[in-house]
Design goal:
370 residues, alpha/beta, 7-stranded mixed beta sheet, 3-stranded mixed beta sheet, 15 helices
Length: 370
């Protein structure tokens, strides 16, 4: 069965997060298609909560086209505060519809920062627009990459996706234009792509092609997507089934110790090759910039805690403090200048110990620097 395209007009397109995502720093997201011809076997979009109960096999075979996506985006972005929006979807149908390009034009017109997460070098078609947005408001491009090899294993897990080599070449072109670019090294497939050789190869190739960061993350397994992925393993790597069952059990992600060690390995490799293991946040100038800078640092601390398998209670304390700073309508630096530590401690979600952390950032962390 070939790919079936279904056009329709949704009533809404913009997703608004309560708080900015701590990986890609987007507050909003909007995508022109449902389903993906790349057909990656591990994709979390096959989960029941995302597929809305549809057959996971339809994910790459039935592509729903939101034909009014640009018009909806213009209408909805015009009603929300300016913040980073993640858009775009450069699967094959985009060559014909150009919906992602039209959405980028809306973002440029309305002066919003943009973040793009892609597998396809087709995104280079819109380099001109992305470069304009970057000069005006800020832009970042992240390429999803799980290996450096274009071999049978890659084709097995990403049957319809462009080559890894083409993604690295595209990464270099964006970086050469001064656009923040990096790699989402996720999901790192256990017992397939988590070996030291592959980890180093991906980080090294990212750095060599101008990438400024590598975000790493493990495979998640849930509902229909879990069943789908296990069927792939059963067919091609049956010997790995017991290992996966031991590593995951009935959980959404792998055991913490495994995930933490994997993240630390990537972190050390990023240090070795002179890049970051977190995406730098775009923060526009202004009185509230300091709030977002400190929030970014607190969220990055949470990531380190996750790698160390620190208690959820402590991580949530840092998260809540970061979110409290995001929600402030007054500069945290001004609050501290006027009211001292007591002023910080009075902020909802902060308290005494986190107030101390914020004071440290204000006095010694260079948080006001761009």
């Amino acid at each position: 069965m070939g790919v079936q395209y279904v056009s329709y007009k949704p009533k809404k397109i913009l997703n608004t997060h309560k708080h900015a995502d701590s990986w890609f720093w987007d507050k909003y997201s909007a995508h022109p298609y449902i389903g993906c011809e790349h057909g990656c076997e591990y994709c979390y979009s096959r989960e029941t909560k995302y597929s809305r109960g549809s057959n996971p096999a339809d994910f790459s075979k039935i592509i729903k086209i939101k034909e009014n996506a640009p018009e909806l985006l213009r209408k909805e972005l015009g009603k929300v505060p300016r913040d980073t929006v993640i858009v775009g979807d450069y699967q094959p149908i985009e060559k014909k519809t150009e919906l992602s390009r039209k959405m980028l034009q809306v973002i440029l017109d309305l002066d919003f920062p943009v973040s793009l997460l892609e597998k396809s070098p087709l995104i280079l078609r819109d380099l001109d627009l992305i470069e304009e947005i970057n000069k005006q408001s800020g832009a970042s491009v992240t390429f999803s990459i799980i290996t450096t090899k274009d071999d049978e294993t890659k084709e097995l897990f990403e049957p319809g996706a462009p080559s890894m080599a083409s993604r690295f070449r595209a990464l270099k072109q964006f970086s050469d234009r001064g656009i923040l670019a990096g790699v989402a090294f996720m999901p790192i497939l256990p017992f397939i792509y988590d070996d030291d050789e592959n980890l180093e190869a991906v980080v090294k190739a990212t750095a060599e092609n101008g990438g400024k960061f590598v975000l790493s993350g493990g495979l998640t397994l849930a509902s229909a997507q879990r069943e789908w992925y296990y069927r792939v393993l059963e067919k091609h790597f049956p010997e790995l089934i017991p290992k996966y069952q031991a590593l995951y059990g009935d959980n959404y992600g792998p055991e913490c110790k495994y995930a933490g060690e994997l993240g630390k390995k990537v972190s050390r490799l990023c240090q070795k090759f002179g890049i970051k293991d977190r995406m730098p946040r775009y923060v526009p100038d202004g009185p509230l910039a300091v709030n977002r800078r400190i929030s970014e640092r607190l969220q990055n601390r949470v990531y380190r805690m996750e790698l160390d398998c620190i208690s959820q209670y402590k991580m949530w304390a840092f998260r809540k403090a970061a979110w409290a700073l995001e929600d402030l309508t007054e500069s945290v630096a001004e609050i501290y200048a006027k009211k001292g530590r007591a002023g910080l401690e009075s902020l909802k979600g902060v308290g005494k110990s986190l107030a101390e952390e914020i004071v440290h950032q204000l006095e010694e962390g260079g948080c006001c620097e761009s």
